[in-house]
Amino acid sequence: PRPGMERSHTLGPALPPYQPLAAGVDMEGLPRSTVVAMETPPPPPPRDHLAWSLCTTLYANVCCLGFLALVFSVKSRDRKVLGDYSGALSYGSTAKYLNITAQLLNIFFVILIIALIASGTITVVNIFNHHQNDPRFVGPT
């Protein structure tokens, strides 16, 4: 054993000998620092947007963009399982942008169809009212 590190008769590691504080130094004068080694948590895995792509494929598959988003989501999930986070991030972001594009086109087409139905209804009502007010109007011959 090293000098000053006598082992006691009990089981356990040998403790360093007790050393009293130097004269004129109290506990307040000693540095108080504790070093805690912390590991940074691993970054979260990239998102693959699989559920969103599946819903887009089933409900808003404009120009097959929903199906393409589903394909890229599955590729992203495969890359994530293999541990290729950069590839998974790339495929996942592509799937996200395809989903956004499909949703925006779907909203645009729904608004367009509503506008066309409303304008067609207004035109038919105007023709019907004009026919009721002018009995000479028979229509195109």
From TrEMBL:
Query: Record's Pfam families?
Result: CD225
Query: What is its subcellular localisation?
Result: Membrane
Which keywords annotate this record? Membrane, Transmembrane, Transmembrane helix
The signal peptide here is: none
Q: Which GO terms describe its cellular component?
A: plasma membrane
Q: Where are the transmembrane segments?
A: 50-72, 104-128
Q: State if DNA-binding is listed as a keyword.
A: no
- The keyword Transmembrane is annotated on this UniProt entry: yes
**What protein family does this chain belong to?**
Belongs to the CD225/Dispanin family.
Q: What is this protein called?
A: IFM1 protein
User: Per the UniProt entry, what species is this protein from, by scientific name?
Assistant: Penelope pileata
Question: Upper lineage ranks?
Answer: Eukaryota, Metazoa, Chordata, Craniata, Vertebrata
